[in-house]
Amino acid sequence: MFLRRNPVVRLLLPLAVGIMIQWYVQAPFCISTGVFIACMLFFLFMEKQSDFSKLKYAGLQGCVMVLAAISCGMLLAYSKDVRHKQSWLGHTYNPEQMLAVTLKEPPVAKEKSYKAIAAVTYIMDSGGKRPSSGSIIIYLKKDSSIRNIKAGARLLFNKPLQEIRNNGNPGSFNFRQYALFNGITHQVYLTPNDYSILRGKDIAVWKDLLLKAREYVLRIIKTNIKGKKEQGLAGAMLIGYRDDLDKDLLQSYTNTGVVHVIAVSGMHLSLLYWVISLLLRPLLKKRSARWLYAILVLCVLWGFSFIAGGAASVVRAAVMFSFITIGKLINRNASIYNILAASAFCQLVYNPYWLWDVGFQLSYIAVLSIIIFYKPVYNLLYIKNPMLNKVWQLAAVSIAAQVLTTPLSVYYFHQFPVYFLLANMVVVPVSSVVLVGTLMLVMVAPVKILAAITGALLAALIWWLNTFIERMETFPFALWEGLQVNVFQAVLMLLIIAGLGFWLIEKYKAGLWFALTGLLVFFTIRAHSFLVAGWQQKLIVYNAGNYTAADLIWGRQYFYIGAEELAENKMLSAYILQPSRVLHRVAGTGNQVAAYKNGNIVLFKNKKVFFINSPLKKARGNKKLNIDVVILSGNPRLYISELLEAVNPQQVVIDGSVPGKKAGYWVKDCRSSGIACHNVSENGAFVMSLD
User: Fold this and answer.
1) What is the largest CA-CA distance in the chain?
2) Are residues 623 and 657 in the same domain?
3) What is the mean pLDDT of each run of 10 residues along the chain (691 residues)?
């Protein structure tokens, strides 16, 4: 039986279940602790029993083991949640207090500010200073003084913190949860007058060395490789540094299905492992040098992983290759499923919230997919020519990896790259050469002539690679967009693939019936979702920062009303507008509003929507307009009392382009007048059904 041959898998699955239970249920610490202690006492009791009793109650022991793993997962998730620490700043902080923080990373340049993650060390007030914990995001106004702020710098300020919140737009990324998984709960924007820099630097020696090593590598890349795009790609591929990566280029790699070559992942570490193993292979011939081989390989792998930022995909690969290396050392070849499960188990013990990390999920599912489907796919064709056979092997790996990753990719990214096979056939070998070449560049950097030649060759190769990807993105039907599946549908897709796999590979007829049943359920759910989408009628006012943005949805079409700059900006539109449109399964008609306009009033499905971004003109006579929704935007000189003299609104919506203070005054005035008011900056997007 599979689970008996792979015991770590039996522990991994209940551990993951326990982590999810704790996050979604938030069980008290005493419950999970009590269950875990009871399980341990049971095992101590069984240890003193006879072999016959142990065999008799083997099933019960298995159930208790599962329960122990679940409770262990719950304890891990509880202990990792920063909100459960007594010293967490959220328990005692108030806006009048001063905070002392330490920067955990160098400030990164953004469009309008510098961004850094900082750890809170002290809370100060008239009663003295108290140790505190937790992390915050600091946005620093762009200023020349920022050059003096490095990782480990200690800042003191008393500007009020703001809790991290989601923008509340339908279908948008849950940034609050993502930040919380990383122990980050608040944010603040500071100008040079808001903070002071304390003396000294608070950073661990090993982390300081790693940051200096990363800066050294980036300096070599920027010195020897010409071109911003080329430098950004080289830094991202070698050490996972994405801050210099061109955003449009990153989107091109995503749309063509080869973004995995940019993210430092198992592929990069496998190449490094192969190179190091090749160089150190002579050590394996001597029994006395085997330990030296293992130590050197592990030091290189983990050193590279830490310099690359310790991403989940890199750590996963490092743990897996560590087990393989140790297995070679003791002459044992463990099951690849056991190795994979063991690496996942170790990572979740270290950080249980990696279970929700998309990179973590995709990296494991891709490796599992290759393990299961590579041989069946490869055996579909027999090619005698050695060169063509190598090409087919690469194609088989790409196809095999795509089998199980497709449901997750569609669920998270709502798209499918049609030419993924062609892109991978070209990009994977070329990017491997780029990666090895960049490693060589770092090694030969002291010899300036060799470094210059290597850098020039790399720049040319990366330019060609980027050009190829950007042109492939423009191919007809290159990207299948707008795909929307929920969690249940994604799981159904995986189960359908599993059923077909058992039927085709293991020759189990039951697998075919299982897959057909899953297909029937999947398409029934999908047909129902399209039917519901065809009847929908909604008004959505987005939380779009300083922009006005609204969609009028009728069936599977939307009519956009708002700032043209937002609609034409690909990055902003993809972040603010597109998730909602994918969620509601709608297609647009451009920026034209296909509804009757009367001044600033839009009539839609017998509903009157009044857009106001300027002072109201005094109405003639005493007749008021009956308005269903009034949308206030911009910064008009307007009092709610003046608004009520002109119209009778059922609902007032204040969009994100309104200054915070003015929005606050309007909300108070609406409440005092008994009018429903929704401030999108505070409460997220406004969604109203027009049925």
Assistant:
1) 101
2) yes
3) 77 94 93 93 85 79 91 95 92 89 88 89 86 93 79 91 92 92 93 88 80 86 92 85 84 85 68 74 74 82 73 71 73 74 88 90 87 90 87 88 91 90 87 86 91 94 94 89 90 94 88 93 93 92 90 90 85 89 82 48 83 75 80 88 88 91 92 92 90 72
Domain assignment present for residue 127? The answer is: yes
d(CA 199, CA 138): 19
**Cross-strand partners of 675:** none
For the record, the structure tokens of 654 come out as 């204040």
Q: Which residues, at least 6 apart from 565, have a Cβ–Cβ distance to it below 8 Å?
A: 547
What is the domain extent for residue 557? 537-689
Q: Can you read off the two tokens belonging to residue 439?
A: 């490693």
Tokens found for residue 643: 């608004």
Q: For residues 564 and 577, give the distance between their C-alpha atoms in angstroms, rounded to a whole number.
A: 12
DSSP 326-372: HHHHTT----HHHHHHHHHHHHHHH-GGGGG-HHHHHHHHHHHHHHH
Note whether 70 and 94 are same-domain residues. Answer: no
CA count, 13 A, side-chain hemisphere, 589: 15
Number of domains in the chain: 4
What is the helix (H) or strand (E) element at residue 115, kind and residue range? Answer: strand 113-125
Same domain, 526 and 543: no
Q: Which residue has the tokens 């569609």?
A: 410
Q: Judge contact between 550 and 686, C-beta under 8 A.
A: no
In the block, which residue shows the tokens 């198992």? 266
Residue 567 contacts residue 573 (beta carbons within 8 Å): yes
One domain, residues 44 and 164: no
Residue 391 located in a structural domain: no
User: How far is 490 from 470, CA to CA, in rounded Å?
Assistant: 29
Structure tokens at 583: 């969620």
What does each C-alpha distance from 4 to 335, 338, 379, 468 come to in angstroms?
Answer: 12, 11, 28, 48
Rounded Cα gap, residues 126 and 138, in angstroms:
24
Residue in the block written with tokens 């940051």: 211
* Torsion sign across C-alpha atoms 540, 544, 546, 552: negative
Looking at 80, 97, 112, which one is the last position of a domain?
80
- A 10 A CB-CB count for 166 gives 16
Clarify whether residues 76 and 94 are in a common domain. no
Type of residue found at 77: A
- CA dist., res. 374 & res. 383, Å (int): 16
Nearest Cα to 13, choosing from 492, 337, 363?
337
- CA–CA distance, 300 with 268 (Å, rounded to integer): 13
State which amino acid sits at residue 606: N
DSSP for 278-292 reads: HHHHHHHTSGGGHHH
Q: What is the helix, strand, coil percentage profile of the chain, to 5?
A: 60, 15, 25
User: Which two tokens mark 198?
Assistant: 């304390």
Q: Evaluate whether residue 330 is within a structural domain.
A: no
527 near 398, Cβ under 8 Å?
no
Rounded Cα distance, 675 and 689, in Å: 18
Cα–Cα dist 397/370, whole Å:
6
Contact criterion met (CB below 8 Å) for 525 and 489: yes
